[in-house]
Amino acid sequence: MKHSSLILSIPLFVLIQFGCSSASEEPTQPPPPNIVFLFADDMTYTAIQALGNTEIETPNLDRLVQQGTTFTHTYNMGGWNGAVCIASRSMMISGRSLWRANQFKDRWQQNDSLALAQTWGNLMKQQGYSTYLTGKWHVAANPDSVFQTVRHVRPGMPGDFRSKGSFDSPETMPLGYNRPKNEQDTSWSPYDTAMGGFWEGGQHWSEVLRDDALDFLDSATAKSDPFFMYLAFNAPHDPRQAPKAFVNRYPLDSISLPESWMPRYPYDEGIGLGPKLRDEALAPFPRTEYATKVHRQEYYAIITHLDEQIGKILDALEASGKMENTYIFFSADHGLSVGRHGLLGKQNMYDHSLRVPLMLVGPDIPANQVVDTDVYLQDIMATSLELADIPKPDYVDFNSFLGLATGESTIGAYEAIYGSYINYQRMIRKDGMKLIVYPNINQVLLYDLQQDPNETTNLADDSAYADQITNLFQDLQALQQQYADTLDLQPTYDQLQSQL
């Protein structure tokens, strides 16, 4: 009774002044977070200093590693043609796995309004996001039908000199390919702006994208709407061009050869990776130590130049006052060989070509944390939907890794990772082992990834692994069914069983 009489004696204006509210009032909802996706092209998982590569300088990517959570085992499923980036980006934009995305892209080409509405950009727009794209696109959908604001749409790669030559023989290769033949070969320079490529238009494409991003952030500072930025660099795709100062940071005597380096991959022709494949034609056959080091020098230089542009974007985000409510993803569409296993490109099932860096920075994301759970890079799309409070549509095949990043759950982990390249190659990675199948030449490779991370010792001919090979092959066939892969591996399996 004493408490009741005391409350009744308090003047009404005091109750109002101290904010007594009715039970019907709703609590204030936090504003939706901003999403920034930094997307590199052809960047392998080992190309960041903070993740173990002491030969490369990446202070701003290191900054993302230190400020957020890094997924060290992130994969692309592969590709349905030599331009693996098309498949990777189509999966990212559609949320569909490899072969479903291959079928789905036809609806984009027909300008199917429902198919376009189901894209990543439009899902964010429907939730009230201001959506923005600049840089490499390389999917069948019209970018203006996916993003509200579009700047400097770039093709699959900067122009090269292929129109001036033929891939039919080494003697007719276009300028920029089949080089350097020796230490006297100065036919092409990564910092000669007359070579076009990334220099087309007068400013390096990575710098143009940086300026586009800074312009958008400048305009977004005064707005309250959440934004989704899709910033897709062409770097470090070839032609691997960078200003001379960046190339000079990497003298050849400071660059090592990969542990898996070899003059030529023994199965290259049988799996579609011979000298006529554009990516592989960049360097002479057989590979030389000198040519490999030159290509790695140029690769490191363009990545360090890319890193500098990313740093300026991160600085602008911090200056905008938006950082405290922004999540930043960094990844790449796939990796690259750059000399490993005698290969230059990404059209293979080795980790250097399937595996990419992936960092997530943002509110409630642990800093300087490493997660080694296997994920797909296209999980970024599903994760961003969860951050934006958008229910994941049934057609999205990929998982959010937000719970893995925060440590709150293991939802999103995969039992096995699947890989595919046209009809030439299939792969399964499970329980620390990798099985690669080359059905056209009935060849099988097996690697123990924990003992042999560089994949240099093939265990497939060791009878001690016969049961493991059989189990992995059957698991791979199950993944084929799960991901609508219609390639018949049974003849290869039957032959394998006859040999075990």
Give the topology, please.
Elements: H1 2-8, H2 12-17, E1 34-40, H3 59-67, E2 69-71, E3 74-75, E4 78-79, H4 84-94, H5 98-109, H6 113-117, H7 120-126, E5 130-136, E6 149-154, H8 205-220, E7 227-232, H9 244-247, H10 289-320, E8 326-332, H11 351-354, E9 355-356, E10 359-361, E11 369-371, E12 375-376, H12 379-387, H13 402-406, E13 417-421, E14 425-430, E15 433-438, E16 443-448, H14 466-482, H15 490-499
Parallel strand pairs: 1-7, 1-8, 2-11, 3-12, 4-13, 5-6, 5-7
Antiparallel strand pairs: 2-10, 3-9, 8-10, 13-14, 14-15, 15-16
Helix pairs in contact: 4-5, 8-10
Features:
500 residues; alpha/beta; Arylsulfatase, C-terminal domain; 16 strands; 15% strand; globular
Q: What topology, given as strand order, has the largest sheet? A: 6-5-7-1-8-10-2-11
CATH topology of the largest domain: Alkaline Phosphatase, subunit A
Please identify, by name, the CATH architecture of the largest domain. Answer: 3-Layer(aba) Sandwich
Alpha-beta content class: alpha/beta
Report the sheet-strand fraction: 5-15%
Q: How would you describe what is shown here?
A:
A hairpin with a 3-residue loop joins strand 13 (417-421) and strand 14. By secondary structure, the chain is α/β, with parallel strands linked by helices. It contains 15 helices and 16 strands. It has helices spanning 2-8, 12-17, 59-67, 84-94, 98-109, 113-117, 120-126, 205-220, 244-247, 289-320, 351-354, 379-387, 402-406, 466-482, 490-499; strands at residues 34-40, 69-71, 74-75, 78-79, 130-136, 149-154, 227-232, 326-332, 355-356, 359-361, 369-371, 375-376, 417-421, 425-430, 433-438, 443-448. It is globular. Residues 1-24 have low confidence and may be disordered. It folds into 2 domains: 34-406, Alkaline Phosphatase, subunit A (3-Layer(aba) Sandwich), CATH 3.40.720; 423-499, Arylsulfatase, C-terminal domain, CATH 3.30.1120.10.
